[in-house]
Design goal:
Radius of gyration of chain A: 24 Å
Order of helices and strands of chain C: EEEHEEHEHHHEHEHEEHHEEEEEEEEEE
CATH superfamily of the largest domain in chain A: MetI-like
Largest sheet of chain C: 6 strands, mixed
Largest interface: A-B, 105 and 106 residues
Largest sheet of chain A: none
Chains: A mainly alpha, B mainly alpha, C alpha+beta
Oligomer: heterotrimer
CATH topology of the largest domain in chain C: Rossmann fold
Shape of chain A: globular
Order of helices and strands of chain A: HHHHHHHHHHHHHH
Distance between the termini of chain A: 27 Å
Mean pLDDT of chain A: 88
Strand content of chain C: 35-45%
Number of helices of chain C: 9
CATH class of the largest domain in chain C: Alpha Beta
CATH class of the largest domain in chain A: Mainly Alpha
Distance between the termini of chain C: 42 Å
Low-confidence stretches of chain A: 1-5, 282-295
Structural class of chain A: mainly alpha
CATH architecture of the largest domain in chain C: 3-Layer(aba) Sandwich
Number of domains of chain C: 2
Shape of chain C: elongated
Helix content of chain A: over 70%
Number of helices of chain A: 14
Strand order of the largest sheet of chain C: 6-7-8-3-9-10
CATH architecture of the largest domain in chain A: Orthogonal Bundle
Mean pLDDT of chain C: 93
Number of strands of chain C: 20
Chain lengths: ~300, ~270, ~350
């Protein structure tokens, strides 16, 4: 009981020192094995054949092309998804219209659908076997097995990311501020930019960061719609698979280390934004509760 | 149409519906149409073929095992992170999100490297006679990794917001720690636990990237359903791919309905009178 | 600016919140919309502002039909119940917002000068650089008022302006709002459910019930001559007795009081606690004292009448009276309504 007495507070449930230490110990060991080790081994494997191999892999034209494809995909998909997220949040939280609850469910669908299913679904829209395939082919428009297909599939899997961060927050903030701005004579655009946006900016950025991480890392859906053409339609995750199956493990891990770095930066950004009150994880059913800063 | 005071409904709702229609609903509808065009007999023969059924079996069993493991580990993690203060707690808290942030393909190759016969863990486990890589156990571990954050992140906020007075009341009535946990805390956590569990299970059923590297992908043994779809596509058997994908899609919708229902149940507790 | 509502109707889904309300507010008048929750008072205020659109009827600002003018162009100053101050802007930026988005372009210096003037008006000099989260509730209320006044509104609208404040702050702000109104002479409508606030502050009180106007008039008029039992009870505590009117006199269990102009027959008799008295001899309503509550200015007596009614009345602090005492409640004055 000694360490609880320091705090001069009676022990809460589970505060018995032996239980506490054992549980922390188990959790830390399992966490290190299951979460930390996979991150560490990327670095170890990436440099297993020395600096030269590492640098050579990253400098290879195919790798550079894959990085470029990934960045271009993100540069298109993330802003479009952000615009969609803002539009969805504005319409859902500032107005009442029939079918609103259904729309909310539909927006979240991509979270529940396997990326493979998403990829196959896109095949049946734009592929030769799909609805628009023959028409697109007749006009020689390439969507599948090209950048547009990769972007579209990435948009599908990340469609809810921004909207999901904005909707609960804007719901909690209500309509008073916008009504006040409008009653003072501000236009709709001015109201959004001067009043709504400053109050949701961290949540917006939070959604954008998570959306970007997912777009850059998407594998399943993209592997179906990209066609996996080396040096042409490979994104970084696909390039990793290619190298790995070519028995170039060190090269695969070298490429993976870039995405692992992205993951670490994403987590750092996430923690930083959470300190500013974004993405406060809400208890189930308390979405409408006012937002506060995390202690 | 009712007139609105704030501007922009038509524009914002128009953009939203167009985007949702084009990006989300159109492809899913195309998939459903393709699967439906098969005819019942043909559809049934594809989705009930021995190889398909074997893939469901592997996927569902591994997902169940992974979810049960995560239920305990996730709850323990959430508990430790909210109830105890220890050095490195914030770091652990941040690391819980790694499986979400790390691309699945990256997770796949690093788990494979760890658990392969000469890997850090694989060599130790091998001496104990346990093979992980290229067995269903490997599939389970990949699923554990990718779906762990769901349970932690749904339980954690509920645990944080738990009113200490409830515990204090139970203590004042003479309950032991274990009794209080079982009879007071666990029932309050259970809606969140169930919701997190169903999210975790749904994610495991659809996972692809993290699994295919470690699974071995032997038909009838370690071939998951998502991979079978991929293989059918590579064989240009689009009908079979559509049919099996529709099975995953229906499962996803069922899981979505269950999750929503559980959240609605969880809401019952939080309704203020 | 004179405001006129002509048969205004508002329906939410299937619920009719406002049933054909007609109302005229003179230029420079200070009017209170008073009613319990669900009486439609806030909806009426929001329709005048343009924050809701009427489903029927018209709203005139002067001679202009303002019914369809959007809130942005209507030229009203609206003070929200919870102030709706922009949390990311300083007090000065909040007050200056309306001027900075206005179609009439003003220089920064012009806006700053006007903001300084308004800060002085609402007695918040020196707080312009604070954020809304850094000032007290009463100060926020005054910022909200200054922000609404900054656009030189044709009419000032306040939704439960003091609802979120402590009792003593509320009291001071009430006096102060009255002073500001006197100084600026701007047509003002405010909504409240607190009858004391309405009577203290307004030139005219409009009492609402279930989306309809029940009575309107000066505080004196509505207090002295409430139109029906609802208005009477809403304006303050009252004891109710049932009795009978005969020839302009109302009688209830031995007590008797003037009831001019009330038709003969069964009637309900309402009397404020100060309008009852206690005597040991009759005539009066036979009753037994159950409790005596001591208050700074008087003693409140609770007595139960032989007929079962509980009566509450006030007596002088010196008066000796104790629980268990039997006697008679007499009526000094009362308001009598015929029971239909």
């Amino acid at each position: 009981m000694s360490d609880t007495n320091h705090r001069r507070k009676p022990p809460r449930v589970g505060d018995a020192p032996l239980f506490r230490r054992t549980l922390i110990g188990i959790v830390l060991v399992l966490g290190a094995l299951l979460i930390l080790a996979p991150l560490v081994i990327i670095g170890v494997e990436a440099f297993s054949q020395g600096w030269q191999t590492y640098v050579a892999t990253l400098d290879h034209p195919d790798t550079r092309h894959a990085i470029m494809m990934t960045v271009v995909t993100a540069l298109i998909a993330v802003p479009v998804n952000t615009a969609f997220g803002i539009a969805a949040a504005w319409s859902i939280t500032k107005f009442d219209f029939p079918g609103k609850r259904l729309l909310l469910v539909v927006i979240e669908i991509p979270f529940s659908v396997s990326p493979i299913v998403a990829g196959v679904a896109y095949l049946f829209v734009y592929g030769l076997q799909g609805i628009f395939g023959p028409l697109l082919d007749a006009y020689d428009v390439k969507i599948l097995f090209a950048l547009p297909g990769i972007v579209l599939a990435s948009m599908f899997v990340t469609a809810p990311f921004v909207a999901r961060e904005l909707i609960p927050l804007m719901q909690a903030q209500g309509r008073d501020l916008e009504e006040a701005a409008t009653s003072l004579g501000a236009s709709g655009w001015r109201t959004f930019v001067a009043v709504t946006l400053p109050n949701v900016k961290w949540a917006l950025l939070y959604g954008v960061v998570l959306c970007n991480a997912r777009v850059m890392g998407e594998f399943g859906a993209v592997s179906i719609v990209s066609g996996n053409i080396r040096g042409q339609t490979n994104t970084l995750p696909l390039h990793i698979e290619l190298l790995y199956h070519d028995y170039q493990a060190a090269g695969a891990f070298a490429s993976a280390s870039i995405l692992a770095l992205l993951a670490v930066f994403t987590i750092i950004a996430k923690v930083a934004l959470e300190r500013r009150g974004a993405g406060r994880r809400k208890a189930l059913g308390t979405d409408a509760a006012p937002q506060g800063n995390r202690p | 149409m009712k007139r609105n005071v704030l501007p922009g409904l038509r524009l914002s709702l128009g953009v939203t519906l167009f985007y949702v229609g084009l990006i989300v609903l159109l492809p899913l509808a195309a998939l459903a149409v393709k699967a439906a065009s098969l005819g019942p007999a043909e559809y049934w023969s594809i989705v009930s073929s021995p190889r398909s059924v074997a893939s469901y079996r592997v996927t569902v069993l591994a997902a169940l095992a992974a979810t049960v493991f995560n239920l305990f580990f996730g709850l323990a993690l959430a508990w430790v992170l909210t109830r105890y203060r220890f050095p490195g707690r914030r770091l652990v808290d941040a690391m819980v999100d790694l499986p979400f942030a790390l691309p699945t393909a990256v997770a796949g190759i690093s788990l494979t490297a760890l658990f392969s016969a000469n890997g850090w863990f694989g060599s130790v486990l091998g001496q104990l006679g346990i093979t992980v890589a290229y067995t269903p156990l490997g599939i389970m571990i990949a699923m554990c990794f990718t779906s762990l954050p769901f349970i932690v992140r749904t339980v954690q906020p509920v645990l944080e917001d738990l009113d200490p007075a409830l515990e204090e009341a139970a203590q004042s009535l003479g309950g032991s720690d274990w009794t209080i946990f079982r009879k007071v805390i666990l029932p309050l956590l259970s809606p969140a636990l169930l919701a997190g569990t169903s999210l975790s299970f749904a994610r495991s059923l659809g996972e692809f990237g993290a699994i295919i590297f470690i699974a071995g992908n032997q038909p009838m043994k370690t071939e998951i359903t998502a991979l079978l779809i991929f293989i059918r596509l590579e064989e240009y058997d689009y009908q079979a791919a559509a049919a099996i994908a529709s099975v995953l899609l229906i499962t996803a919708f069922v899981m979505l309905a269950i999750t929503n229902w559980m959240q609605a149940r969880a809401l019952r507790y939080t309704v203020k009178g | 600016m004179k405001i006129r509502l002509d048969n205004v109707i508002k329906t939410f889904d299937t619920f009719r919140a406002v049933h054909g309300v007609s109302l005229e507010i003179e230029s420079g008048e200070l009017v209170a919309l008073l009613g319990p929750s669900g009486s439609g008072k806030t909806t009426i205020l929001r329709m005048v502002a343009g924050l809701e659109y009427a489903d029927g009827g018209h709203i005139y600002f002067g001679d202009q039909d303002a019914t369809d003018i959007p809130v942005r162009d209507r030229g009203v100053g609206f003070v929200f119940q919870h102030y709706a101050l922009f949390p990311h802007m300083t007090v000065a930026e909040n007050i200056g917002f309306g001027m900075s988005v206005s179609k009439v372009k003003r220089s920064k210096a012009e806006i700053a000068a006007r903001v300084a003037q308004l800060l002085k008006l609402v007695r918040l000099e020196g707080l312009g650089d604070r954020f809304p989260g850094q000032i007290s509730g009463g100060q926020r209320q005054r910022v909200a008022l200054a922000r609404a006044l900054a656009v030189d509104p044709k009419v000032l609208l306040l939704d439960e302006p003091f609802g979120a404040l402590d009792a003593n702050v509320r009291h001071d702000l009430r006096r102060w709002l009255r002073e500001i109104h006197q100084e600026l002479g701007i047509t003002t409508i405010f909504v409240t459910h607190d009858q004391e606030e309405a009577l203290d502050l307004a030139d005219r009180v409009v009492i609402l019930k279930e989306g309809r106007i029940v009575q309107q008039g000066t505080p004196q008029a509505v207090c002295r001559d409430p139109k029906d039992a609802f208005v009477l009870k809403f304006l303050g505590d009252a004891n109710r007795l049932t009795g009978e009117v005969r020839g302009g006199r109302a009688m209830a269990g031995g007590a008797e009081v003037a009831a001019p102009g009330v038709a003969d027959g069964p009637a309900e008799i309402f009397a404020r606690p100060r309008d009852l008295d206690w005597s040991l001899q009759g005539p009066g309503v036979s009753a037994t004292v159950t409790r005596v509550l001591d208050r700074p200015g008087e003693r409140r007596v609770i007595a139960s009448a032989a007929s079962g009614e509980v009566l509450e009345f006030d007596v002088e602090p010196e008066r000796e009276i104790a629980a268990g005492e039997a006697g008679f409640v007499t009526l000094r004055r009362a308001k009598v309504f015929a029971l239909s």
